[in-house]
UniProtKB/TrEMBL annotation:
Enzyme kind, highest EC tier: hydrolase
GO BP: any one term: proteolysis
Protein name: Aminopeptidase N
Source species: Streptomyces thermolilacinus SPC6
Coiled coil feature spans: none
Domain Peptidase M1 membrane alanine aminopeptidase: 310-454
Record-level Gene Ontology MF annotations: alanyl aminopeptidase activity; metallopeptidase activity; zinc ion binding
Length: 518
């Protein structure tokens, strides 16, 4: 009988052999989701399905305390993963077990679970955290507005990191439950439907729910003292509008605009199809900013949007985004035209409805009022670059592209496209190439040259968008040679007043510039 001698090294080797070969496949998720404009945004390796946020906020100190429960599914075998968070994490658990974690970079929370996470097996992540959002600066800027009676999270392209941990990129949308405790006499406004409200020991808790996929930057939180109006649409959707109690001279104009939200939404349904979410509304906190934002179901409006009186055009813009930008979201931030070009064009269509200038007249004015040497024409709406992501050209030249498409296809096919796109892509993501392919498929026409001219060439197109009836050489040449219109359409002043609608920097001259990390 021969006894085999097993030395310690051999024992170790045999144990290694017993571990499945697939264990070697567990690797860290990427610290970014892969967006070339914002490499640090989002994270790789998993997909979030739901956020449950339980928060407590004290307006007098700006202290936010939170527990976020994140339901996700790994898209690879994960040894480690990142969340985006600017506040201080206090404790992290993955599938109920304590996990190691550390803050890295400007906004990364690096989490190492006790046990690696297999691909496609759902996980829960619980993060306890706290901090003062107004003290968090990332790349020199902030998405958190401190107000006299509270605080507001509303910003683009990022705002989540100031108030909850997330996979902070539109490519990873999820449903939300947001529960916020604030001192009695103060309200907490968020997205979706107010499920319940209760008070105890000097605090009132508001529970909000968004039951359709929502990008993280479209999640909003506003704490303060508001006058709140409520209603129900003809289709039974709850409507919640909220106005800061200290809007001063802008209060009446703000209400006169936002109280038309249901009317505007019903009109947009005629153009874009059924409203895609479970609630409607808008809110105006007492902030010093000048922009507005399409926060899902409940757009954010700065009081300055109404400094010159009521402006329903800005309401049209933000509500149009509920279809174009919120339900159908960008795959990457370079695809911003499929949000902003359509939202701006909806303002042109509202002008037609109100008898204040047709979309063609507005297109003619935009084209004629910008000479060929204007830097406006060097911005490519189809891929403007991060420095020009919210440049006015993305809006106005982006709308010109749609007028050119309308002229090419005719009204019947064009409006069929506008309604079909948010239906086909509901609650998903898309890029500019997806829309071009869709338009070609549905129209049966080759449209590459049209979109290249209006979205990608860094120069002024040779002619304005020409209606089909004037498409002959002589008519087109006469239109091009004609002097610029003596005056803009009547709606132009109201539309131009929204040119800073997504100018989030609030620094310097905003005539042609959008958000920048400055």
């Amino acid at each position: 009988m021969h006894r085999r001698l097993i030395v310690p090294g051999a024992i170790a080797a045999s144990l290694l052999l017993a571990i499945p070969a697939s264990a070697a496949d567990f690797v860290p998720g990427a610290p970014g989701i892969g967006d070339p404009y914002y490499p640090a945004s989002g994270n790789g390796g998993y997909d979030v399905t739901h956020y449950d946020l339980r928060l407590k906020y004290q307006p007098s100190t700006d202290l936010l305390e939170g527990t976020a429960t994140i339901l996700a599914t790994p898209t690879q075998n994960l040894s480690r993963f990142n969340l985006d968070l600017g506040l201080k994490a206090l404790d992290v658990r993955v599938n109920g077990r304590k996990a190691a974690f550390k803050a890295t970079g400007a906004q990364e929370l690096e989490v190492t679970p006790a046990v690696p996470l297999p691909k496609d097996r759902p996980v829960s992540v619980v993060v306890r955290y706290s901090g003062k959002p107004s003290e968090v600066k990332i790349d020199g800027w902030t998405a958190w507005h401190r107000t006299p009676d509270g605080g507001v999270a509303a910003q683009q392209p990022e705002s989540a990191v100031w108030w909850f941990p997330s996979n902070d990129h539109p490519l990873d949308k999820a449903t939300f439950d947001v529960s916020v405790a604030v001192p009695d006499g103060t309200q907490a406004i968020s997205n979706g439907v107010l499920q319940s409200q209760s008070s105890r020991l000097g605090w009132t808790r508001y529970n909000w729910r968004s039951d359709k996929p929502q990008a993280t930057y479209l999640a909003t939180l506003a704490v303060g003292r508001f006058d709140v109006t409520t209603d129900t649409t003809a289709n039974g959707l709850p409507v919640v509008n909220a106005y800061s109690k200290d809007l001063g001279a802008n209060a009446g104009a703000a209400r006169a605009s936002i109280e038309r939200t249901v009317e505007v939404a019903e009109w947009l349904e005629e153009i874009f199809g059924p409203y895609p979410f479970n609630a409607l509304g808008g809110y105006v906190p007492n902030v010093r900013s000048g922009y507005a934002l399409e926060t899902q179901t409940r757009p954010f409006y700065s009081p300055r949007q109404f400094a010159n009186g009521s402006n329903v055009s800005v309401v049209v813009h933000e509500l149009a985004h509920q279809w174009y930008g919120d339900s159908v979201s960008v795959k990457g931030w370079k695809d911003i035209w499929i949000n902003e070009g359509f939202a701006r064009y909806s303002q042109w269509l509202w002008s037609e409805r109100e008898g204040e200038g047709t979309a063609q007249e507005l297109a003619d004015w935009v084209y004629a009022s910008r000479p060929a040497g204007d830097p406006f024409w060097t911005v490519k709406p189809g891929d403007p670059g991060p420095e020009n992501q919210f440049h006015l050209a993305v809006y106005d030249r982006g709308a010109l592209a749609l007028q050119a498409l309308r002229n090419e296809l005719g009204d019947e096919d064009f409006f069929r496209l506008l309604k079909g796109w948010p239906t086909e892509r509901a609650h998903g993501n898309a890029d500019v190439a997806d829309f071009v392919s869709y338009a070609e498929r549905e129209s049966g026409k080759e449209l590459d040259a049209l979109f290249d001219t209006w979205l990608y060439q860094p120069s002024k197109p040779a002619t304005a968008p020409v209606p089909a009836a004037e498409r002959s050489g002589a008519s087109a040449s006469a239109r091009t040679a004609a002097p610029a219109p003596a005056a803009p359409p009547k709606s132009w002043a109201k539309i131009a007043a929204t040119n800073t609608v997504h100018d989030h920097s609030d620094h310097g001259d905003h005539s042609d510039h959008g958000h920048g990390h400055d």
